[in-house]
Design a protein that fits this description.
alpha/beta, Rossmann fold, ten-stranded mixed sheet
């Protein structure tokens, strides 16, 4: 694949895609986190220092980060993607994490270690387009501040062949607002379909992941469409006739989605596996439980379903 030009506006420093990620999402810190919960901070600190030369195993979001940083190899001069580490570790206990970053050759140089304080306060100063964390409290705070954020759930993401980055999104309460879900919950599915048909030409409202989707689209547009290293999918429980409003909204926004799956309530997991998603974002706890059996999944605690 040809390198992108530094003159492309999507490749300029202020247009780069910035992803902030927690240490527990990037690496497998399950055992040491359990020790912290069981025996407290002093035991955790002693354990991390004693084992700081032992390389941590990859976490569920590790393959995603590898592919994100791999996009920089295709850039001419200015890296189009930056990954930032946000960790509730201290600088002292965080040394083991940076040892692992260096071991795996991850180009991550910026970090914030908060010694137990919320990391979400640093998402905005770093200009992050996306925040991924295993800490639901930090995620909720970031979402409230207007940043796309998701809780990375425990599990092992299957390794995906090829270097193409594949990102899948739910629609309502993720890319779009949750007004459709509210109608469905309060008045039923028939009323939902009737509402969507009546307002088919009116754009859906903006959801918490609209900004990240747009940033990803701008990055995607820097590469040839026929040979892009990024592929996106909308995987939604909607079906005809509620599909039309979604398509027209994305068209109005000028945002490209490569694949659109309107499943009509079918289990999303097998479809995400067929798409080969490196990450999937959904607000529904039920959909998240299905998806995490197949792909790395981020729960977006937004909308009426998480009230």
């Amino acid at each position: 694949m040809a390198q992108i030009s530094v003159h492309d506006p999507a490749a300029s420093a202020d247009k780069r895609l910035v992803v902030a990620i927690s240490s527990r999402a990037l690496f497998d810190l399950g055992a040491s986190h359990a020790l912290f919960q069981r025996e407290g901070l002093d035991a955790y600190r002693s354990f991390q220092i004693a084992h700081e030369d032992e390389i941590l195993k990859p976490g569920v979001a590790f393959p995603l980060v590898q592919k994100l940083l791999g996009l920089n190899k295709l850039a001419a001069d200015v890296p189009p993607v930056e990954v930032i580490l946000l960790s509730r570790n201290s600088g002292d206990t965080g040394l083991r994490i940076f040892n692992a970053i260096q071991h795996y050759g991850l180009d991550i140089s910026r970090a914030a270690f908060t010694s137990g304080a919320p990391t979400s306060d640093y998402v905005a100063p770093f200009n992050a387009d996306l925040f991924l964390s295993a800490n639901a409290e930090d995620v909720a705070r970031a979402l409230k501040a207007g940043v796309a954020a998701a809780t990375i759930l425990p599990g092992t993401a299957p390794s995906r062949a090829g270097e193409q980055l594949r990102v899948a999104f739910d629609g309502d309460a993720v890319i779009f607002g949750d007004e459709g879900e509210r109608v469905s919950r309060e008045e039923g599915l028939e009323a939902f379909h009737r509402n969507e048909v009546e307002h088919a030409t009116e754009p859906l409202s903006v959801g918490p992941f609209r900004g990240f989707l747009t940033a990803l689209h701008h990055l995607q547009a820097a590469f040839p469409a026929e040979n892009s290293p990024i592929r996106t999918a909308l995987v939604t429980a909607r079906s005809a006739p509620a599909h039309k409003r979604v398509i027209l909204t994305l068209r109005r926004w000028g945002v490209r989605i490569d694949e659109a799956l309107f499943l009509g309530g079918r289990d999303k997991g097998p479809f995400l596996d067929a798409f080969g998603a490196d990450i999937f974002f959904d607000d529904s706890p039920a959909n998240v439980e299905s998806a995490r059996k197949h792909v790395a999944t981020g729960h977006v605690p937004s909308g009426v379903g998480n009230s």
